[in-house]
Fold these 3 entries.
Entry 1:
Amino acid sequence: MRKLIILKSIVDLVWILSLPIIPLILIFIPYSFFTSDFNYFPFAINGIEIETFDLGTKIILAVMLLSYLLLIYCIYLFRKILSCFIRVKIFDEMVVNNFKKIGNLLVLSSILIGVSSFLYKIYYMQKISLKLGFSQFFLLLCLGFFFMILSEIFKISKKMKEENELTI
Amino acid sequence: MPIIVNLDIMLATRKMRSKDLAEKIGITTANLSILKSGKAKAIRFSTLEAICEALECQPSDILEFSPEV
């Protein structure tokens, strides 16, 4: 249980630190479409410095920021799961649903990040590169599928627990 | 569920109360109620044996298969 409390504290800290980012992203996305002067903002997408600000770059940036919002929402859902675990509600419907939601959102987010950075590299840097190993895209994709599998496992476990409880 | 538990009928024919049966076979009245209402997912052989012994009957007297319509 101590490990669970440590994990919950870390996730809470990450959640609290990411809270101020949410309104900033929500304000910045519409703002970026109405302004063209970005010279005083140094921007980078996955480590690539953005030099030209046209509609394409703005769309890619907006997609990237939206995917970061999805990641923040995943942290929120994970916090809820950990609270359930602390209350010893392990094989709960909410836990199964939240694991599934996190999995789907992580896969979606990884695809959004991967596709947008790939497109940026093609259009603005005229190069195609595929980074294997611990790249953000593959790590998020694998994590997403891991959460989906975890959801399925918890679903089976929940059913087995119910059956065990109803065995006389 | 297509398996019907006829424990109610057996108890009525033997004029025995659920509480007495539960005490005799060593399960809680809540669990016996789950069994009687058909909410149970499974029954242990040991429980079935104890019920049959207490009610002096066969497992077929307690359990019945009825295909779902």
Entry 2:
Amino acid sequence: MRPVAIIGTGQTDHARRRDDVSQPELVREAASRALTDAGLRPADLDAVVIANMELFEGRAMPELWVGEGAFANGKPCMKVATGGTSGTSSCIAGFHQAASGLFDVVLVVGFEKHSEGHTQTGMALTDPFWDRAVASGALGNFALSISQYMAERGVTEEQAARVAVKSRRNAARNPHAHLKDADATVDDVLNSKLLAHPVRLMDMCPQSDGAAAIVVASADRARELCPRPAWVKAAATRHEQPYIGDIERRLLTMRTLKDASRSVYAAAGITEPLQQFDVAEIYEPVTYAELAWYEILGFCPEGEAGRLIEDGVTEMGGELPVNPSGGVLSANPVGATGVIRMAEAASQILGRAGAHQVEGAETALVTGYGVYAWADAAILGSAA
Amino acid sequence: MSERISVAIEMAQGWRYSSGDAMARFSEGLRRKRIEALQCGGCRRRYLPPRPVCGNCHLPLSDWVPVSDKGTLEAWTVVFLPFLDARTGEVRDGPYGMGLIRLDGSDATLNHYLAENDPARLAVGMRVRAVWREELRGAMDDILHFEILP
Amino acid sequence: MIREGSINIPFLYAAGKAGSEFLVALRDRQQLLGSHCPACARTVAPARAFCPGCGGEEMPSVDIGPGAALVSWTDVPGRGVFALVRPDGADNAMLHKLLGPAEGLRPGSRLRAVFADERQGHITDIEGFEILGEGS
């Protein structure tokens, strides 16, 4: 397989409701910005990959409807739908398409308009024989695992609240973020509404309308078109068994994320992630998950994630800034969310992250998280 | 800003699902308050819900093993946000307790409601027991919820 | 063993820039709108924000119809006659209903948009297309 790189990114402004645009128009905003960022015209694209969870909007074949917005007319186009990993998996599919030699330039666009459908219902449509009677959606699923994580690792509500504060403060410097609060405090989080013990409103990701896109290019085209491409050093995706009860000690072990990350670490020669990564854009659907991922991703030993956030290690200016964009906690249009992670990490390498740029970022980690089980990981770097 | 038009549509989402043999036997068992898991001859994992093939070894499963209606609370939460019941589309008001319960004799945990909804009275490791519906119908909600054992 | 059920799910779709303009014109002016791409010298119906041909975003709205030509049709028992119709001034066809029986129809048959008395900014503000006669 040949080397590939990300040479441009584009995002919409994410918000609770983007009723100023239709779904195709929303997709076009992100696609158009990515093309401009890459310095390309629509005719330069060889193929298009779209990420979307169509059940949330109740619209069949979204890749047909929004394809025009993604410049897909007359080109090979496919859709990826794997819950929260849809975005990262679609990017990885785009990497594979360019790496295989089939295509030189691939546009990947993810979008979701949660305001147009009923996400809670979509999430509850699980196995009708087994857990539909007791489904409580993403929120209940997260909350259930958190008690176990807190009991075993001693993580506190205050430590989780620090994650929310970091996220909303970082988001204040990101023009695209949905939830921004430069003045957020731990007390604000601890006093926000209790949704499902111990998860409070500010601990949880929002449901956003938004789209994000990246342009993937083969090595030759990347060198030709981009002064400092974000090279794909490694990428991996892992799926799990189907039921929540199949997955032992979920937040504690998260074997899909562990497997995917160890696979990309090995491929890219990462042995000390905290030292070797300059920035990370990880898929944290809830504050407690970000802490759990610190341990799973090897940023710290098990049981020390709380200390990591307390010591500011993952803040802007810390040893490893995690989610300078504000992360999923600050914008979550599900089909786009993983593409946002990839676009943000690529922007850091490209040196185009603006007010939330990590100076001199050369190696970035990206992760994706889907339903309660699936995971993706990718490493981007400034050197081919 | 020019006028923004939106179109509201309410769509009925209907379904008709086949259970397969393993889940049919399991569901029939519930009518007699009997819980059974399928065990893998390779990794020895006892699966709930029962299914025809082991997800780890990919071996066909056919060894049924009995599972108790008592177990241990592996994880819990109390949901305060009103949530939609996917069986009916009706809203289920909070607060209600939910748990991941490892039934004695099973390796998988079961996601179900708890009779207790006070966070101060719930802890990982508690012993729990199924409270059964009076009129059993051969479905997961034949178990109303789990009560905490002293 | 079989399990059956049904729930109702609400959706609320934004028509967006071009879609809103199209629906407002139906409601307020009883007028069909298309979008003209100067690069492709082509007008598409209904109005949209970007050209399906070249991807261009300079797409000024233009009045089209109410006269139209029949492209193809199907008679669905109990539901009526559905047709692809090409409004005068447009280069493509849009899907709608025909008001009248399918007898004697042929590609090119002349049609005219009929607007509902009570309009609310919805595609059904066009009641359907009435059949005027055979085209040339």
Entry 3:
Amino acid sequence: MSGVQPRPRGVHADQAFGLLAGVFVLAFSVAVLLLADDQQRVIDTNSRLQERTVPEIIRYQRLARNLEQLRQEGERIFAVSSPAARQQSMFVVTLIASHPSVLEHPGAAAMARETEYFLGQVVRQWADGRPRSAAQYEQWQRLSGRLGLQIDDVSVEGVDLASGELNQALAAMKLARYKLLIVLVLVGFFLLAFIVLVRRHLIHPLQRIDQALSNLSAEQPEPTFNTSRMLEIQAVEEGIREHHALLIQNEEIRRGLEALANKDGLTGLMNRRYFLQAAEMEQQRAQRYRRPVTVAMADLDSFKKLNDTYGHAAGDAVLRAFAEQVRETLRQSDLVCRYGGEEFAFLFPEIGPAETARLAERLRLACAGHDVPLADGRRVRATVSIGLADASECPIESALRQADEALYEAKRQGRNRVVISPPPVTNSPQENP
Amino acid sequence: MSRYLLLFLLALLLSTRVAAQGGQPAVLRVLVPTDAAPMAYHDETGRLTGFSVEVVRALCAEIRATCQFDVTNQDEFLDRLQQGRADLAASGVFEMPELRGKLPQANPYYRSLSLWLAGQDVPPGRAGLRVAVVQGSIQEDYARRQGWEPRPVRNSRELKRVLLGGEAQAALVPMIVALHMQKSEAFRRLGLLPTVLRAPELGGDVSFSISPRRPELRQEINMALDRIKRNGAYDRINSRFLPFRVS
């Protein structure tokens, strides 16, 4: 035989739910980090937009402004008649066409060079005294138109820079939104799983435990549980089973003690205290339903002499034999107790004194015809005197007193007989004038 | 309870006073060259103005400082900045190579190029040419390296005098100076033709020089410059003084 207890199979609730919480925190942290990454991308894009793209856009705007200035100076060259004004405009055209802001944009630089070259030729021709021609102005108009288109292109290029950055930011934000949805689903899933697991492994077992505790008693069968995976729940369930076993054990002990407290140790019959309680309840019931009930007092005849002659052990044997006769002769519903010494008290429900007398007579005859064997092999015979009284309409104490008086009468008349107490005398109006 | 309330109010009052003291505008001492139109000059009302001056004023407004201009010769810039007698030099009109290497520079506030102004018969490149240049400028350096004979001048007025007087056959000047000269009728009558010289050292970015004793100013100025370029203040100043965008 081994003293080692089998190791319970299952998991600790704190470990199981701690693991679940850990997985949740890990998954949530990863999701938050992914979200933070997207957020950082948006921030980076926005910073890039602020620090790099916006200045670039402004640079394109300034380039467009310079190209527009180039066109205006060209118009001015054709519009003014003063050579000085033309020279000044041509000077500005030269500066613009050579300025780094224009040169760094290939399309604008080419356009500016072409404009500078054309306007330079025109200015030189006019300075040489050549007349103005409509063809020159038409050529300038075409060039000016192309310059205008170049201005539009430069403006749009600047705006396109922002569009690209904004699209990137938008894409990052969209991605972040999808991730946020995934995070929400993840959180929802974990919460659902958590609730399901808590309900399944904690709440439901606790409810079953609560129900089992509510119904727990020695009269009920041992509670049964679906074995939980949680060691803590298993321990509580095992505790409840042990408690139930203890209740049953206590109940058995209580019943044993109750029996000892209510019975006479020698004869096994009721003791006087318990008899009086039971007899009173039975009499009240009979009186409530107006049913007949009779009490009796019995006493073994010459018991002192028997004791003196054969000893107390013989007396005890006679008492036990009488109790056995009582149990064999009387009905199960009849109450009987050892009232004291060799005196016994009876209560016979549902029958009046006349019927009770027949029953008592049968008992008396059984006793009178029964030899009680003693330990030393001798046999003795004891008779009994019985007094009866109607208990239908008087208190139990009063009825027992009347039965006792009838018993006394039976003794007086020579013992070994049954005497019925006469009904109480009621004074008629004629006798009590 | 009332004692705590009193202490709280006292602390609040002190913090307000400290904040008020801290909020007093700082003074920014700025060096500007004399007679350097259109970058720094006195207008008809006697008020100091010009592209560089107004940009500096806008920067001062951005950094909540009070500008204190000091109009002086450029050859004093380096010493005064190094000695901490000035915080900033708006010397961009005549870029000085000696300032570039020795002083912290803010981010560029405009981009320049150099022009060769001469008659049709004096193309750039011939050795021995007498070339008017601004004293101490990168153009003077370049002229010496090319084997020309530089005629250093200190301002636009001297430049005009040298050219009109025939002391110089040509001038090598920053575009801003050329623009200003072009407004002069007498200068235009000379019939000098502008030619843009593409040498890398003659063009490029122009910045404010900062005193080495105020290194923290550099970031402050750069950020303020960035802001005025975004909020339109810079472009409005550009339009007031120059015919096209120079940034």
